[in-house]
Input
Amino acid sequence: MKAANNNNLCPICDKNAASSKHHPFCSPRCADVDLGRWLKGSYVIPGEKADVPETEPDETY
Output
């Protein structure tokens, strides 16, 4: 991930996105690239994995 040096630059391709209706992205394509990265889990917060207790499935309908 790139450092945020300029709020007017697209975080995907570094083009000027100041006047874009897709701000902070310059185009729908860059917005879709970012969404794809989120959905694939490419953006993560570094740290230790959290302990999540296993739960029984609730079978009451």
